[in-house]
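Tutorial handout. Part one gives the primary structure; part two gives the three-dimensional structure as tokens.
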Amino acid sequence: MFLPLTVIYEVFSNPATNTFAWVRVEKAEVIFLNDFRWSQQLISWHDLLLLLEGGLVHFHAPKTHFARDLILTGDTPVFATSKHALVYIKAGAIDDVETEMMSVRWRQFILQSQIPVIEQVISPCGHCFANFILLNMQT
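Part two.
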């Protein structure tokens, strides 16, 4: 469903799972986190909150290729897919305050059905995607 993003924009998609997971994110027009599962090793909770509100975020970069770490500023749109909303667990229990801080930064679309595999041959369409987003912008 979000593949049209890759046709329309310069997209940073799914960070790697290593120390330099976010290299090239600073060049992206859009960030697309497909099947996203938050982990502290990937990005700190605080940095993810900052990323989603357009705050300044520092990302590690290999010094063999970069003179300094990467800095992302501005309001780069972030799209993500996931089975569940993100929750913050502290001392074995859900931290309601942190979880609420995260949830207010997302606009969620909950899909109730799946397109049968035989019908999943739709080409990415920028026009159709834009209509989907615009029609669902009402709060």
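Part three, for discussion. Strands lie at 11-13, 30-33, 57-59, 70-72, 78-80, 89-90, 93-94. DSSP finds four helices and seven strands in the chain.
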